[in-house]
Amino acid sequence: MLYFPRPLPDELLGSLLGRACRETGLTPTKLLFAITGERMYQSSVFLPTFLRRLASLTQSDVEYLLYGHSTFPYAVSFMPAKPAGQILGKILSAQASKNDYGSLMQTVVSGVPFRRKCDKCAEEELYKFGITYWHRSHHLPGVHYCLNHRRRLNETGIPIRRISGALFHAMPHEIDGATTHLDVSEDLLSEVAVHSVKALEYRGTHADTYFWLSRFRELAESKGYVKSSTFVATRLLAHDVLSAFGTRFLTEAGCNYTPDNPNAWPARLVRPCTKPEYSAPKHILLFTFLSTCGNAASRVQYRKPGPKSKCQS
Ligand SMILES: [Zn+2]
Q1: Which structural domain, as residue segments, surrounds residue 132?
Q2: How many CB atoms lie within 10 A of CB 295?
Q3: pLDDT one-digit tens code per residue, 130-143
């Protein structure tokens, strides 16, 4: 290929591929064939498998695209360094395949059902670049808020999975959208966006899941959900997290659970016997909840720890 566009600030790689279709005049299938030499009918919006080829076409390097334009840093931001490094090694290797990181990206894909856009961002981009594009920071689980313009994002009807034809290269200014009705305060949505976008800054040096487990316990204790090393008010915590975010928000973010489940993920993340859980959206939602609105003061009845379990509810 003689020409390929360069990624714009905060642009998703799937958006770059859409712009490449527009600017080269190729159909999605022909574009993907021109890039990979293989017959492909769709590609991941978040992390295409042909990253090395894209780096060459955009005269950049793989790590620049991975950390600056894919959702990889978000997806591994709460992982221990070793498994995160193993996944990074596979992605950077010449033989990377979808199987190497498909399940990792699934967390992000299942938490963002449709493409989202900010009309103010689109307006400014049209003026500045002559085109609009899909932002990485707008396509993270639970993010319904543009931090640049302090306003709600609009959700479009374009699904994140399996797009083809005209939708492959449709851009925000061409597509209608509307805010999703959520039972969540704008302040809380803003906080979720702040912590989610911060996770995109991961460069392999962040605190890992074990740090966060102890941090969650500290926060849960300060808010009255943890009374001792053996007593955690897990049902109350799960109930309060569900009340703060609402079922629809949690379902869209891929983090829903039934309120009477004693093993719901908020409870698992504060228990001393917790097994490692790497899900970035769950870590971010629990941290946002505990640091901004959770409070069990005066509602927790302390009872003496019994000998049967270290994880009572
Ligand atoms: Zn905006």
Answers
A1: 13-174
A2: 12
A3: 999 999 999 999 99
